[in-house]
Amino acid sequence: MIANILLVAKREFRQVTATKSFWLTLLLVPIALAIGPLVGDKLKDDTATKVMIIDQTGGAVARTIEDSFTVNEDRALLVSLSRYVERHDFDKADPRAVWAQHDRWYTNADVASFRATGGLKAALAKIDTVRPEGVPAFDAPTPDYSFLPPPAELAAASTDTIGAQAKQLTQAKGGDDKKAAADIVLLIGKGFPQDPTVSLWSNDQPRSSFVTQLQQVLTQAMRGSLLQQQGVSPQAAVAIETAAPAIAVSTPPPGGGAREAMLVRSIVPLALAYILMMSLMLSGSWMLQGSVEERSNKLLESVLACISPEELMYGKLLGALTIGLSMVAVWLGCAAFAAFATHGAIADMIRPALAPLTSPGAIVALIYFFAMGYLAISIIFVAIGAMSDSMREAQGYLMPVMLAVLLPITMLIQAVLAGNNGIMVQVLTWVPLWTPFAVLARLGIGIETWELIGSGVALAIFVFLEVVFLGRLFRASLLAQGQKLGLKQIVGRLKAAPR
Amino acid sequence: MEVLEVDALTKRFDDVVAVDNLSFAVKPGEIFGFLGGNGAGKTTTLRMVLDIIRPTSGRISVLGAAPDRRQAAAIGFLPEERGLYDNMTAIDTIVYFARLKQMDGGEARKHGMELLERFDLASRAKSKIGEMSKGMAQKVQLATALVNHPQLLMLDEPFSGLDPVNQGLLEEEILRASKRGAAVIFSTHVMQHAERLCDRLLLLRKGAKRFEGTLDEARAELPAAIDAIAKDDIARVAGIASAEPKEQFDGEWRHWSVRLNPGVSAGEVLERCTTGGVALRRFEEQRANLHDVFVQLVGGEESR
Q: Is residue A499 pLDDT above 60, yes or no?
């Protein structure tokens, strides 16, 4: 019996792997996954917003604004560098450096210290001395804003003239260089801060963070002026305006935050649930085509003269499982190759992602639910194939089955991604058709042992019942050609196995 | 030992009796014709022998045991509805079916190639079935039935769809299998093939046996006919059921079509004519052919 099952499985495997669509699918998935981030990078707008400030007060306000923004940019750079140093444990490069202090929100004084010690260039030079080969270099974030000097003739022009010019400056040009000269033009009038009106022209809705920070800087300037008018010395006014609390910050190391950690831990289980779904749909449709071909080519009688319907069905299931697992193996192989080829970058990300797989029990659970999920759905495909004389007829049965399987799974994956372990996820865990997907998806965010074992047992019982009942349907349908199948006939074939 | 024994076999599908209390046996080396019209129960019987479907009642013995897939190694089967995997090559198809019948892969390939050579298909051994003509594919399918040197070869309507050359080739293969000791059963409703090949015949009508025996015995089932030129007194000879004049010759001589009573032979009538002084210018026995027997026993609308 085993020899016949293996022969049928081998033939099914060879039949599918001989098709162009198999190889296209096998290669397209890793190619799409590889191209995806590149396309994403291309689509990402990483150019700095160009800001032009026309300061008719003499230039002091413009400098204050620019300083404020560049300090914030440097703070963001410092935070990013600090996370990088913490992630790779590079503190030893200079333990006293500000970027090696991860316990606080960086103040303007910290930024000033960072600049004073040579900024990013000097920091990277030190880090490079301890950075092992294979660890990716620091990728500095692109600044959000760049400041442009205004044309000299505009500085003294009237507000109306500046307005007209600003509109032209912020309009995209024709020809090859379609970019505008400036994205934002800001006019600080002569009367500032007594006259608080500040005009802003933009080619798009300005970011709220930009407006908020601008407002903060200008408000400081106005308050400083008012304080001085009230007799407060300029130094005291500045001290009052820049007074800020020192906020000590305690955060988990990169990848260790609660939500971040949950997401990272869910990467592998969710990916497996998704891969299970994808490979099932693909191999299921190939298997269906094979079954329909056997019926339409009228070769079943020849096959059944040599082997039993059960051997044929088990062989088909084993073939489908082998095809699916081969696809998964190739895709995981591609992922491993990508991790190896990119050295530390992906491996660093994968390490916490592989945390759910550190125990043998978790690995066994993953393999069990993956394989059982494959069997549970593949049996349905095999039964549909046995009932259908043509692919068109098969599609009629397939559509409702696909919808019933796929719709809840897409909702389930969304729910798990959102960290939702609510009633829907619980229910789907216990409905055998969706159990493999739900359990795989939940392995990252945590699932109780009793739920894991209970749902596993329920799934095994479901697969057993499927084998019994759909096996009857398969056997009864094999040689019954050209019959219109209604619900009554299907139920009749499920009930008993007359031969 | 009989290769195949069927005893009181009955198969019902709901209210329809497809096979009705059927019994027969086939010996090694025997070519057994399984004749009947459409829906007579031939294919159902063969499927029960192969254990594809189970009988409602009765007993089947294949090589001394109840039907089981474990006997597949000793059976060759060519179904009425033929088809193979389009994207498999001819030789791979033969090897696949041989291996399903527990044959060693190497031996299967070797004998498969011998069969393809015999069928003039050696050059197409690596061609896909989908690229072959229907006749070629049918010969490949015949090879899948023969590759395991079966002791019981069952062919369901094997001649349908074959051109005269390939029909001849198939007849040769049936005789070859019989010579090496295989029991061959083939169903057909083309009587010429059965007349040429069969050692014994079984005629089925609506699932029930109407006749089993040799070709001569089958012919004897119908009253013999005599073509005679005689005078009017021939109609009075004992044993003659009817004598119809066909044409008038000179004087009293006529051309008669004479039918005999059941169980009366032409020789007996000739003897009675001689002893009774009935003058004869021609006395020629017209033996019934299988077509006539089939029409008589099974029904004219079911024969070709």
A: no
Q: How far apart are CA B279 and CA B253, in angstroms?
A: 10
At B47-76, the pLDDT tens digits run 899 888 889 999 999 998 888 877 888 999
Contact A304/B at CB under 8 A:
yes
Predicted confidence at residue B195, as pLDDT, reads: 87
Interface pTM (ipTM) of the complex?
Answer: 0.81
Say yes or no: A391 contacts chain B, CB-CB below 8 A.
no
Kindly tell me if the per-residue pLDDT of B30 is higher than 90: yes
Of A18, A297, A479, the CB nearest to B83: A297
Relative to beta strand B200-205, strand B31-36 is parallel
* A40 exposure class (CB count in 10 Å sphere: 0-12, 13-18, 19+): exposed
Query: CA of A496 to nearest chain B CA: how many angstroms apart?
Result: 14
Mean pLDDT computed over every residue of chain A: 79
Cis amide linkage into residue A193, ω under 30° from 0? yes
Burial A48-67 (b: 16+ CB within 10 A, else e): ebbbbbbbbeeeebbebbbe
Give the tokens for residue A8: 């049928």
CA distance A403 to A411: 12
Report the C-alpha gap between A172 and A163 in whole angstroms: 16
Give SS3 for A230.
coil
> Got the DSSP string for A376-391?
HHHHHHHHHHHH-SSH
Strand-pairing partners, residue B184, are B31, B153
pTM to 2 decimals? Answer: 0.69
Average pLDDT over residues A345-359: 59
For residue A31, count other CB atoms closer than 10 A to its CB: 12
- Which residues of B lie closer than 8 Å to A, measured between beta carbons? 47, 50, 52-54, 69, 72, 75, 77, 79, 81-88, 96-97, 99-102, 141, 144
The minimum CA-CA distance between A331 and chain B, rounded to whole Å, is 27
Smallest Cα distance from B301 to chain A, Å: 25
Task: Calculate the dihedral angle through the C-alpha atoms of B47, B52, B53, B57, rounding to the nearest 10 degrees.
Answer: 70
Q: Which two tokens stand for residue B168?
A: 């001849």
Closest Cα of chain B to A1: distance in Å? Answer: 9
Residue from the list B53, B69, B81 with its beta carbon closest to the beta carbon of A306:
B69
